[in-house]
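Sequence only, no structure available. Ideas?
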Amino acid sequence: MNLSEELQKRGFIHQFSAETLEEITDSEKRIIYHGIDPSADSAHAGNFVNWILLRHFVENGHKVIFLVGGGTGRIGDPKPDAERVLTPTEVIDERVEKLKTQAQHLLGTEEIVFVNNQDWLGSLGLIDFLRDTGKHFTVGELIKKDAIATRLSSEVGLSYTEFAYPLLQAYDYLQLHRNYQCDLQVGGSDQWGNIVAGVDLIRRVEKKPVYALTQPLVVDKATGKKFGKSEGNAIWLDAEKTSPYQFYQFWLNVSDENVIDYLKRFTFISLEEIDELEKEFESNPGARTAQKTLAFEITKFVHGEEEVQSVCAASEFLFGGGDLASLDDKVKNIVVENAPNHKVTVGENLVDVLVETELASSKREARTFLESGAVTINGEKMTDLESVISDGVFINNLAILKRGKRNLCVLTN
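Reply:
I predicted one. Tokens follow.
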């Protein structure tokens, strides 16, 4: 299967600036550029899907330039609903280094060049830039871009600072074309206008054809929201911002509507294997095999084999059962850090504890749960309405109180 077919079947293709996709992806090996601005000190899942696309290109023999926008980040790409708050330069520089380190870790350095556009934008003279670059753009062209058009028609308005952003991104493409023979820029569909601006600039200045390719934004079909920090639902790649356990749980809990699409775009599992997972999913959706595979594969890629094994063990213990004494210290720490926990005293009535931990809304409901056999401590069913917390339930000062299969609390003494 050639690359164009692979990318289309995985859902990576939205728009491209050629008569056929094959002309871009299959005709010759290209130098591809993708950029990210340091609007945060970590990439999130919405960014990461572009990094997966880059890996597909690298594995098919193309070379990649990964740009961190230390220069463009000082301005910010126009948001459709608000003026960006300008970030202090020292914060931007710190974020650049963190993003570069993160990308190097996940993408590797073989066949990938890392650049910072502050290296050329920082020394760019305004008059020269306006003469040599600005003259190739018309205001009419710029105001047709979605984010700019939206802002111009809103009460927020648009500063000249953000209005000039597409020119800077176009200039980046020109610089990378001149210095690295870069001939393809890829990004999310919301970047189409900025990418095409670079294609047009190179055509006018260098008289050479280069290409643009975008992929669809990742949208949760259940909510209609895209992945991204502006939506308030960012899943960060940095373990300090989204723990590996939380990261794993996010992918484990994706909806049935999304899971097959996410397997295609966020993992490197073969399309044939995904087809088999889809058949298994359709015949037995309750087993959630597709979600478990997705969560395992992407967590392993981002956080490593050892980490994913630990978070899997913690997740299986919390939601599947098991012996608390058999867990190693790392898994126990994950359990305590990520599950609800509550300090209790030996001799406390279990009915009261169920209410205190919010596993029951009232004492009456707590008694109903006990009578129905829905309550367990460390896997042992508790049915006695007079049950109390005994010292013997604690293993290394921990006990797991559950109501049903998925509602639980870690008890400490």
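The chain has a mean pLDDT of 90.
Hope that gets you unstuck.
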